[in-house]
Amino acid sequence: MRQQSRTRAARWIFITPFMVMFGLFFAAPIVYAIVQSIFAEKGSALGFGPPETVFVWFDNYSRAMSDEAFRESLVRLVQFAAILVPLMVVTSLTLALLLDSGRALWPRFFRVLYFAPYGIPGVVATLLWGFLYIPATSPVLEMLSTIGIEIEPLSSGGVLFAIANIALWVFAGYNMIILLSALDAVPAELYEAARMDGASAWGLIWHIKLPLVRSSIILVTVFTIIGTLQLFVEPLVLLPLTTAIDSNFTPNLAAYNQAFALGNPNLAAAMAVIVALLGMVFSFGFLRAVNRKGNRAW
Amino acid sequence: MVTQKRRSKPAVSTVAVSIVLGVAAIYFVIPLVWVAIAATKSTGDVFGSFGLWFSDSPQAWDNLRQLFAQDGGVYAQWLGNSLLYSGVGAFVAMIISAMCGYAIAKYSFRGREALFSVILGGVLVPATVIALPLYFLLNNVNLTGTYWSVLLPSMVSPFGVYLARIHANASVPDEVIEAARLDGAGEVRIFASIAARIMVPALVTIFLFQFVTIWNNYLLPLVMLNETATFPVTLGLTLWNSQTQRDPMFYELVIGGSAVSAIVLVALMVGLQRFWRADLTAGSTKG
């Protein structure tokens, strides 16, 4: 019995610090955002005196959704995810499979090299790519144009790809490492057995490697989906360089703009909650879709 | 067995694979090479000479001296602030999430799974959703603008709890804990001197992951801080970048500052990547 009360006390000692911090700096802001999103500041009826805080139900949500710029930013976010998620998964998986194939010279060197950009802050990565995206400073555009290829990464048609490229550059190596260590964990006997059965290199990838690292592919996909919802820094830093980006380019930018430039934290809160809901719909929708075969991965 | 196979493979595929990997390598290093070279140039040459080669009048040393002299050496202070936020934040996050993950793994109690689900849900919440309301909350208690406003939220790592639980489950044997109990060791002592030692790979991974996350965070310091003396390097660089239109000289500072912070972080990444136990993150979904 003494034993039990001792472990009970210990359990609280271990759990409490995290839960207090989690509650104050994680859960409380979420709850606060939800509460804020259903209130609004209204000028008092007679036009003088301090504004009152009024309960407005889902007014802020309908205001956000009827705002055309905000709706466009949501559509843009979905388009961005449609570009980045497949690009990220295919790139990091291809690199991982190539490094794992045992046919690469210096695999360790390449592995470290691809991982390095993960340490570069999004801001710095965007500053650097920004220079590579404008003709005045870009050696890449210069070289392409000498062989007759003219591209404008920051034109309205290219800017989503330009931003996706930055995210790919920063995170592909990190995701590759996750997939590589999953591939490392596959027992070598499985490969031997498959080769005995006459499997080709493609057969090996398709029937053994991919199914066995499936859960890590799902992890990478979900991380990338969540990552796309954060889209904020890259358009903010690229904004002065192009007319294709405005202050409502992504939902996060729009929310930031509402809160700090336009002084409407209630509407901003509603926008932030909408982004979070969108993220949940996408993440859980994806997990449901891949887990449908009764093969739970999460 | 795999190595045997490798030797018997035709050389053609080695060449093909290596070419693809080489092209990818060029993609990953181009921005870094560009910034390293641009950091040796004057603003005029950044715009006037070919980006992947040095100009006729390199001035790397001048640029570096100017970078650290500008505004009374504020750049060094930004680097120091980034180190403070990331180092202290990640260290505390590592300890409290390791304790929590260990407790969830090794003590059975009612509501354990529910608690874990709530924490796991935290991993799925975009950080941007937290930052805005957190500003208004902390503003009520006059914490905005202080070091604490960035430091305290950085100490929360739901992902760290997740990793710690997975790793404690997999690698800290119940028998060892039982044996230590029979020897009369207290629960805290068992954790601090036995479990934590076994969990070192997980602890390092949590620390590194959180360190990079804090170092790279932009939105949180952007909304919280208003005095340049408290800025981390990410915020400082965008401050300078916003001044390039007024004075093109700031391009040299932005490029030099980006180069120095990129070199610091890449060196850190390359040096520490062998401690980076990605198999923890990769294996985590199998459990």
From TrEMBL, chain A:
Signal peptide location: none
Entry-linked InterPro entries: MetI-like, MetI-like_sf, UgpAE/MalFG_permease
Major site of localization recorded for this protein: membrane
Membrane topology annotation: Multi-pass membrane protein
Keyword Transmembrane helix (UniProt): yes
Membrane-spanning ranges: 12-35, 77-100, 112-134, 154-174, 212-233, 267-287
PROSITE patterns per UniProt: ABC_TM1
Keywords: Cell membrane, Membrane, Transmembrane, Transmembrane helix, Transport
Keyword Metal-binding (UniProt): no
Positions in coiled-coil regions: none
One Pfam family in the UniProt entry: BPD_transp_1
Subcellular compartments: Cell membrane
Domain ABC transmembrane type-1: 74-286
Family according to the record: Belongs to the binding-protein-dependent transport system permease family.
Name of this protein: Sugar ABC transporter permease
Taxonomic lineage of the native organism: Bacteria, Bacillati, Actinomycetota, Actinomycetes, Micrococcales
TrEMBL record, chain B:
Membrane topology: Multi-pass membrane protein
Domain ABC transmembrane type-1: 79-272
Main location: membrane
Transmembrane segments: 12-37, 83-105, 114-138, 190-212, 218-241, 253-276
Keywords: Cell membrane, Membrane, Transmembrane, Transmembrane helix, Transport
Record-linked CDD domains: TM_PBP2
Name assigned to this protein: Carbohydrate ABC transporter permease
Organism of provenance: Demequina muriae
